[in-house]
Design brief:
mainly alpha; two-stranded antiparallel sheet; 2 strands
């Protein structure tokens, strides 16, 4: 019941925030620059407001704090850790979006800058959880129901890879109207169920708040999109998913529940590898959603 209330409140707040924020972004000319290498018909989207991820981030943050007050009184703060981690990645994305808007270009922070910031944030998050005793070094193998403990350094490297990989896979998925939003809603609902199953009511709150906020954002992001979430939104979503996966030890579940993210990331890796080694393209364009677009799907 708590999850439903939090999700509904987040939905309503995000609808209101969208109504208020989108006109402001238009007035500030915070429009999206379209990459020249993308499909030609994407040029019509140039100027569409970006940084719309602020809509669901703000709604989810307020509802997570309001809905998780009982957990905070009981000393359970893991939902705040997940929220803070998502906000940190949202700030990284905001810096990237801000540079794109300010300098009117389609690239903001360099790849090295973004990777360094992401690794630093992931390392700090994992160290905090470990220090507080909220994180063990157990690796759970889904479907076989096997769990075993691994060396802390090995697990740290593995978990950082999962988090950073998740963040960038979600970012790659955010390439056409409603895609990243629509794909992430059921993944967040999955984490509502997983958190409830493990008795982590505080994590239920943050996952439900994200699901509700995203559902409202889809109203504005559905084709034809009135606003894009930008890196502000996609990096925050990836951060929230990576943080939730690590704290619930469902890292390997991401390969299944996040198979769209996995396919998007793999399509880029395969395309780059094939082009540089064999001088041939496997897909008409990557990430994968652009290939399907060019196939008239």
């Amino acid at each position: 019941m708590q999850a439903i209330i939090v999700a509904v409140c987040s939905f309503v707040l995000a609808v209101v925030f969208g109504k208020l924020l989108i006109p402001v972004l238009r007035a500030l000319k915070a429009g999206q620059s379209i990459r020249e290498i993308g499909p030609s018909w994407h040029n019509s989207k140039a100027g569409t407001p970006t940084m719309g991820g602020l809509v669901f981030i703000a709604a989810a943050a307020l509802c997570t704090i309001a809905g998780g007050w009982r957990s905070m009184l009981a000393g359970n703060l893991t939902h705040l850790y997940v929220l803070a981690f998502a906000l940190v990645f949202g700030v990284i994305g905001f810096l990237d979006d801000f540079m794109k808007v300010k300098y009117k270009r389609n690239l903001g922070l360099t790849a090295i800058q973004k990777l360094a910031l992401q690794l630093a944030a992931a390392g700090a998050y994992l160290a905090l959880l470990r220090w507080n005793g909220d994180l063990t070094c157990d690796l759970y193998i889904p479907f076989w129901n096997v769990s075993f403990e691994i060396n802390w350094i090995v697990y740290l490297i593995f978990a950082m890879f999962v988090i950073v990989g998740c963040v960038n896979a979600v970012n790659l998925t955010d390439g056409i109207d409603g895609l990243a939003t629509g794909v992430t809603i059921p993944v967040m609902i999955f984490y509502v169920a997983v958190s409830a199953w493990y008795g982590k009511s505080d994590l239920v709150t943050v996952s439900a708040a994200m699901a509700g906020g995203l559902s409202a954002f889809l109203i504005y992001n559905f084709h034809p999109a009135k606003v894009f979430m930008g890196d502000t939104g996609s990096l925050a979503l990836g951060g929230a998913l990576g943080a939730a996966a690590v704290i619930t030890h469902t890292e390997l579940f991401l390969l299944v529940i996040g198979f769209v993210y996995v396919l998007e990331a793999l399509s880029v890796i395969i395309q780059v590898f094939s082009f540089h080694v064999f001088h041939r393209r496997v897909f008409k364009m990557s990430p994968l959603h652009h290939h399907f677009e060019l196939c008239n799907w």
